[in-house]
Amino acid sequence: MIKIMLLVNRKSGISREEFRRHYEEVHAPLASSHLRHLVRYVRNYVTDQFRSDFDCDVVTEFWFDYPGSWREVRAVLLPQDMLDLFALDEETFMDRATMRVLVIEQGETPADQLLGNSG
Q1: Which residues contact 115 (CB under 8 A, 6 or more apart)?
Q2: Are 74 and 102 in contact (CB under 8 A)?
Q3: From the CB of residue 45, how many other CB atoms can be counted at a distance below 10 Å?
Q4: 7 three-class SS
Q5: Is this prediction's pTM over 0.85?
Q6: Which three-class secondary structure state does DSSP give residue 103?
Q7: Which pLDDT belongs to residue 49?
Q8: Residue 2: Cβ within 10 Å count
Q9: Do 95 and 12 form a contact (C-beta atoms < 8 A)?
Q10: Which of 11, 82, 92, 115 has the highest count of CB atoms within 10 angstroms of its CB?
Q11: In the predicted model, what is the mean pLDDT of the chain?
C-alpha cells in the first residue's frame, strides 16, 4: 500500500467555503473517477491552527493499492496526461506553488493501549 499526503492552500481570493465546495463537488469526483488504484481518499480541512508560521487549508490523503515504492510506480499511478488534467482544475482554486507532497509510512498505536479506550 502506498500512502501520499498533500498539504494544500487555497488560491488567494477564494474563501474557505468556496475552496471546500469546489474540492468536494468538482475536484474530488474528478480524481476519484480517474485514479484506478485509489482505495481511500480523504480530505482533512483545517479548522484551527496552533502555529501562525505554518499555513495549510487541507491535508489530503491518498491510499493506492499497488505493489512497489512510490518512486517505482508514480508514472503508472499518475501518468502525465492525468497530472495535466488535475492541474487544470487545481489552478482554479489551489495555490499550487505552495503545495507539498509527502510519501507516508504510517505507524499506529493499538487501540487497547490508548487511555481513552480503557473504559
Answers
A1: none
A2: no
A3: 14
A4: strand
A5: yes
A6: strand
A7: 76
A8: 20
A9: yes
A10: 11
A11: 93
Residues 84, 1: Cα–Cα separation, whole Å: 24
Grid cell listed for 58: 487541507
Question: Do residues 61 and 44 touch, judged by C-beta distance below 8 A?
Answer: yes
Which amino acid, residue 35? Answer: L
pLDDT of residue 108: 92
Residue 45 has pLDDT above 90, yes or no: yes
Domains, the chain, in order of start with CATH, read 2-106 (3.30.70.100)
Q: Which three cell numbers stand for residue 109?
A: 498505536
**Contacts for 92 with CB less than 8 Å, ≥ 6 apart:** 11, 22
Give the model confidence (pLDDT) of 59-104 as tens digits. Answer: 999 999 999 999 889 999 999 999 999 999 999 999 999 999 999 9
C-alpha cell at 5: 499526503
Instruction: State the Cα–Cα distance between residues 110 and 113, nearest whole angstrom.
Output: 6
Q: Are 55 and 9 in contact (CB under 8 A)?
A: yes
